[in-house]
Amino acid sequence: MVTQITKGIKISVETSFEGTFFKNQHINFAFGYKITIENQGKDTVQLTARHWQIFDSLNDIEVVDGEGVIGKKPVLKPGETHTYSSGCLLISPIGSMRGYYDMVNFTSTRKFRVYIPTFKLYAPFALN
User: Fold this and answer.
1) The ApaG domain covers which part of the protein (predicted)?
2) 105, containing H or E segment
3) What is the DSSP letter of 72?
């Protein structure tokens, strides 16, 4: 697990290798990740958007931007957490992801960015 704290918001990431399958006559490597967002600050905040950079050792960097996470824009009061699971496909058994969440502080109405630590994606057999 990797963790990082930005402006009182703790991001924890756990990853898993989900297997391989063929798509469009190519082998793909499926990875899952579970992210926990914990508000360790004193103000209520809301996650409004996400930005990902997905690195695939055999492909170009893929950038993904969007609103919220898995269709939600969670509001976190002090001490609350939000956990969600998602995944990605790589054409390589080795890669990584990093990014950030755009958030808003309900007390000050200020927008701020929370960084997601870089986490590795790898099939266990690829590192032998």
Assistant:
1) 3-128
2) strand 94-105
3) B
Nearest to 118 by CA among 98, 101, 104: 98
* Letter string b/e over residues 86-97, b meaning 16 or more CB atoms within 10 A of that residue's CB: eebbbebbbbbb
Burial call 33-45: b when 16+ CB within 10 Å, e when fewer: bebebbbebeeeb
Residue-range domain boundaries for the chain: 2-127
Third-level CATH fold of 2-127: Immunoglobulin-like (2.60.40)
Averaged over successive runs of 10 residues, the pLDDT of the chain (128 residues) comes to: 97 97 89 98 98 94 96 97 97 96 97 98 85
Question: Which pair of structure tokens corresponds to residue 75?
Answer: 């509001």
Instruction: Say what the pTM is.
Output: 0.94
